[in-house]
Q: What sequence folds into this?
């Protein structure tokens, strides 16, 4: 196991280095350099532009700049953002990265929680009208043009029903005199979510031995409700509740959009994967033993059928990150995607490069996690 | 089929036998495709889009005055000052902020969507099939290099990188098709097709062909590639969806040098500030968005229908 992780880390380091190189030369290939922006400005004479070039290190050869850049990245220096001038790129990313990570993590989990059982169910009911209906709906969600989905959600839930805000991260009026910075509240919120997730998993494990399904389910749900209640109580007691709720409220629609899209893919894949597993001999054996249908479906078939889902999660992550640019833009959710797009549009190159680099890191880490998860799920795989 | 003596079989020319075999397998495959029920629906939707594509030049040359209805240069003077005009008899889907007919744009854009989707998909599967077959057959260094490359390509956030690439070289439709085709061909498809080719490689007939003196290229060309072809065709459908989607997203943000496409239509509405008004100017974004979604949807359905044909494990019996 350790050897496997070690090997994977080396691979990741090489991949990351290649990614870094591609990013650098892509930006290098752009015509001109940053100082060309001031060429039409009469208040910045050529001498000042030359001085700026020297200061930014643009007078070096391309290779010199490349070596410089790589050294800077590996020592954690991503430079200053042009847009948020005195702030460092890293400082901005530190603020935006959790927002993207939480958005996609929550959406991925929700998509899985819905898509997994539904795919399992319709595979069992294959060929019936219900199967066709849900499959077509799943394909529709999976292939829907993201801006269209976002616009429809905004139109229905924000514009017509008025349940949610049309975008943004928080309601400015509420935050005129915040007791704490939005960022720290958001981090605490993320921690709460992570804690609740862990709590739910633990509750599942703790009640695993309860023989009868009904009291087991009751105990599980009871424990989860208690956990949620405790978390709510904690937030209420801290007096920051309304502020945290404001952020959650703004998060709702973007999470829903990403969930719907990811849900379609998860469900379809689960269905196909189940259909393949159902034909295996050991399923026939399980049925012949006289086990109830539900046990065969959930305990014998679904666990094996889960594996391709994990693989596809790995394969689709690059695509998901790209899709994040669309979702975040449509809902004005200030995460990495929106920051990246803005930086590109106003030619804030250090910021754009920083965003790309961290997107790469995010993808690579997710890749590693999926690999490890695979090992946990598939007892045949021993690293 | 009537009974024949072996002599009668012997005089049947080879091409005739092949044709008959082809007819029989395609009949079988069609019935499997038809049974999937969702495949034909996708085919029907694609057919409708093709019809719209063909109808556009005919309409322009007969009923629609080009000066008013041209998808890029048109302008309706009768409605001056009232653009974007809501749907009416002369403009069934209204006009856009600069006075062009939305329906005409919608129909015209089907052409570029098909051109882009099909070109990108064909390129990607040609690359994927070749590399997959070669990697599976030869293995060794070639295999390792291309598989690691595929891993790398798959990790890259395509859209984000294309946004940068666009300032290096203007992304026209054909360039975008080439780039998308090459990138996805080197990525996931290669891995899938290689694993399929590996299962073909160990079949006895490959051994037989080698014993009979067939060279490597002959075996790859005549035995391996034809046997992974069905899967190739399947992935082509999924790739059309991906290419159309990527084009739409990029032109929605205005990152492409394309004069008219469904994504550009929504971008035009956004640039003019009509997206924030939601329901009021629905004809500026809903038809184009629906067209993108429907075409992607249709190709994906066809892909799933083909999946039922290609993958025997998904069949009911």
A:
């Amino acid at each position: 196991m350790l050897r496997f992780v070690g090997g994977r880390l080396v691979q990741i380091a090489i991949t990351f280095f290649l990614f870094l190189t591609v990013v650098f030369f892509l930006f290098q290939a752009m015509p001109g350099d940053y100082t060309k922006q001031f060429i039409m400005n009469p208040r910045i004479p050529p001498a000042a532009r030359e001085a700026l070039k020297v200061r930014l290190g643009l007078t070096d050869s391309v290779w010199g700049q490349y070596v410089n850049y790589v050294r800077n990245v590996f020592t954690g220096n991503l430079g200053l953002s042009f847009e948020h001038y005195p702030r460092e790129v890293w400082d901005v990313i530190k603020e935006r990265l959790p927002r993207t990570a939480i958005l996609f993590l929550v959406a991925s989990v929700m998509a899985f929680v819905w898509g997994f059982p539904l795919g399992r169910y319709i595979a069992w009911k294959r060929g019936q009208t219900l199967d066709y209906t849900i499959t077509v709906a799943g394909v529709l969600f999976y292939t829907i043009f993201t801006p269209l989905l976002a616009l429809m959600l905004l139109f229905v839930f924000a514009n017509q029903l008025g349940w949610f805000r049309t975008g943004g991260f928080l309601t400015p009026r509420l935050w005129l005199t915040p007791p704490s910075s939005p960022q720290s509240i958001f981090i605490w919120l993320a921690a709460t979510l992570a804690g609740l997730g862990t709590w739910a998993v633990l509750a599942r494990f703790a009640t695993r031995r309860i023989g009868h399904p009904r009291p087991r389910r009751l105990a599980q749900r009871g424990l989860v409700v208690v956990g949620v209640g405790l978390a709510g109580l904690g937030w209420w007691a801290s007096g920051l509740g309304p502020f945290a709720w404001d952020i959650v409220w703004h998060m709702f629609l973007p999470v829903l959009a990403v969930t719907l899209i990811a849900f379609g893919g998860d469900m379809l894949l689960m269905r196909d994967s189940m259909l393949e597993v159902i034909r295996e001999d050991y399923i026939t054996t399980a049925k012949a033993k006289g086990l109830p249908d539900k046990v065969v479906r959930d305990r014998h078939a679904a666990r094996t059928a889960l594996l391709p889902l994990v693989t596809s999660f790995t394969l689709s992550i690059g695509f998901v990150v790209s899709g994040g640019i669309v979702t975040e833009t449509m809902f004005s959710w200030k995460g990495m995607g929106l920051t990246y797009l803005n930086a590109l549009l106003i030619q804030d190159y250090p910021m754009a490069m920083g965003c790309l680099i961290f997107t790469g890191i995010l993808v690579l880490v997710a890749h590693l996690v999926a690999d490890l998860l695979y090992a946990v799920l598939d007892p045949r795989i021993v690293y | 089929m009537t009974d024949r003596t072996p002599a009668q079989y012997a005089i049947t020319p080879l091409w005739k036998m092949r044709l008959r075999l082809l007819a029989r397998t395609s009949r079988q495959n069609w019935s499997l495709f038809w049974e999937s029920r969702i495949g034909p629906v996708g085919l029907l939707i694609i057919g409708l889009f093709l019809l719209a594509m063909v109808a556009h030049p005919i309409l322009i040359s007969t009923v629609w005055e080009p000066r008013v209805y041209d998808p890029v240069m048109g302008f309706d003077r009768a409605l001056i000052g009232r653009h974007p005009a809501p749907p009416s008899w002369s403009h069934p889907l209204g006009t856009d902020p600069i006075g062009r007919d939305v329906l005409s744009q919608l129909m015209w854009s089907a052409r570029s969507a098909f051109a882009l989707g099909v070109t990108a998909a064909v390129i990607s599967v040609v690359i994927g099939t070749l590399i997959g077959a070669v990697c599976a057959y030869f293995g060794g260094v070639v295999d390792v290099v291309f598989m690691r490359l595929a891993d790398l390509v798959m990790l890259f956030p395509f859209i984000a990188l294309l946004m940068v690439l666009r300032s290096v070289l203007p992304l026209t439709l054909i360039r975008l098709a080439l780039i998308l085709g090459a990138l996805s061909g080197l990525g996931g498809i290669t891995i899938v097709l290689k694993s399929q080719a590996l299962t073909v490689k160990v079949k006895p007939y490959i051994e037989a062909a080698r014993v009979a003196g067939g060279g490597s290229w002959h075996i790859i060309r005549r035995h391996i590639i034809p046997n992974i072809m069905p899967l190739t065709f399947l992935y082509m459908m999924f790739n059309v969806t991906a290419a159309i989607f990527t084009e739409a997203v990029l032109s929605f943000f205005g990152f492409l040098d394309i004069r008219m496409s469904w994504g550009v239509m929504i971008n035009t509405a956004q640039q003019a500030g009509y997206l924030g008004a939601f329901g009021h100017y629905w004809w500026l974004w809903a038809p184009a968005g629906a067209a993108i979604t429907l075409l992607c949807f249709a190709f994906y359905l066809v892909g799933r229908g083909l999946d039922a044909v290609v993958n025997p494990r998904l069949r009911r019996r």
About this structure: Chain A has 13 helices and no strands. The CA atoms of residues 59 and 272 of chain A lie 57 Å apart. Chain A has two domains: 2-74, 91-377.
